[in-house]
Amino acid sequence: MRIHLTGTNWHGATTFNLERAFKDLGHKVLFFDKHPSKRDRVMKNIALRLSRKPYGVEERFSNRRGNEWFESVQGYAPDLIFIEDAPNISPDFISKARELGKPIFYYLTSPPHGHGAKEQMWCFQYVDELFSIDEEWSKIASQFFKKPIHHLPLAASPKDFYPIPGAQKKYDAAYIASVPEQSPDGLMRAHLVDQIPKQYSVVALGSGWNYWLKLFPKLQSRIQASSSISIAKMNEAFNASKVIINFHSTGHTSSISARTFEVALAGSFQIADYRKDLDVLLPPNSIPLFSNLKEMNDLIGHWSELAQEKEREEKVRKLRDHVLAHHTWEHRAKEILKYIKSFNEK
Question: For residues 126 and 98, is the Cβ–Cβ distance under 8 A?
């Protein structure tokens, strides 16, 4: 099968993982990067500065990118057109692609937001199957997509995340996340790490951490990296820590992050704040949960103790086995491709 794949690297390189999973299943994939070229980004920024009609500028460049997308689809002649969270592909071009007579599937991996939010929601009426990681986002999307919306959670790859033989637990706790300066989520994450008691060895990695030193100066001793880190570095950090803190974005209303599955495949222990999908996707009591800072710190204290090592390792083993059996990207690719058959039978 020939698959034309469009998407973003948001959510732990979702598009890359899907591309690899489709290829591992024996399919051919053309990846179309929905992001504009560097030249177009510069031109767009200049136009936005000069124009008094910023929405008109956004629309012009969206149409330009949409036309490039349609020409790519037309030239590749795929058996499946798959779009992952691409709000700057105009509904007009998705509607036009329907004329090619091939199934169009859309994967909603972030809530509709920003300049392209209304275009993204409007395009749902032109796709054949719609997948969403979060049931609350599905309620919004259902206003424009009248068929059932498929629940397709995020996942992880055992090629990227795995136990490292002989790895030493150097840290009591680790938190790996971006901490954007413009977002309340960034403030919440920085505050969370700042409030872990001093007696615990803690490491923080991910883009943006240094910005928050002006509010939380003691973070200096805990920040190991303040820029994007490689998957290999992330896996090493998971393996080097007794407890991984899995604190979700406010955008996840019921869904769980890819981090949940990545930590499990790394063979590491995690604690998390509650999301409904923890009950839906994982065995009961797989992950200790916290609802405030005191509970989080109590869990770090308890599960980092030497006396809890055996029970910690048993929980890790069971959860890793479950994720390997149900929640890899290959599982997600197979679930997506199930719906090709129903389209071909029309």
Answer: yes
Token pair belonging to 128: 């054949």
Q: Model confidence over 172-195: pLDDT tens digits?
A: 999 999 999 988 999 999 999 999
Q: Residue 150, CB half-sphere, CA atoms under 13 Å: how many?
A: 17
Cα-Cα-Cα-Cα torsion 125, 89, 130, 141, nearest 10 degrees, comes to -60
Distance, in Å, from the CA atom of 119 to the CA atom of 92, rounded to the nearest integer, reads: 9
pTM: 0.90
3-class secondary structure per residue, the chain:
CEEEEEECCHHHHHHHHHHHHHHHCCCEEEEEECCCCHHHHHHHHHHHHHCCCHHHHHHHHHHHHHHHHHHHHHHHCCCEEEEECCCCCCHHHHHHHHCCCCCEEEEECCCCCCCCHHHHHHHHHHCCEEEECCHHHHHHHCCCCCCCCEECCCCECCCCCCCCCCCCCCEEEEEECCCCCCCHHHHHHHHHHHCCCCCCCEEEECCCHHHHHHCCHHHHHCEEECCCCCHHHHHHHHHCEEEEEECCCCCCCCCCCHHHHHHHHCCCCEEEECCCHHHHHCCCCCCCEECCHHHHHHHHHHHCCHHHHHHHHHHHHHHHHHHHHHCEHHHHHHHHHHHHHHHHCC
User: Is the predicted pLDDT of residue 37 greater than 70, yes or no?
Assistant: no
Question: What is the mean pLDDT of the segment spanning 6-14?
Answer: 70
pLDDT tens, position by position, 282-291: 999 999 999 9
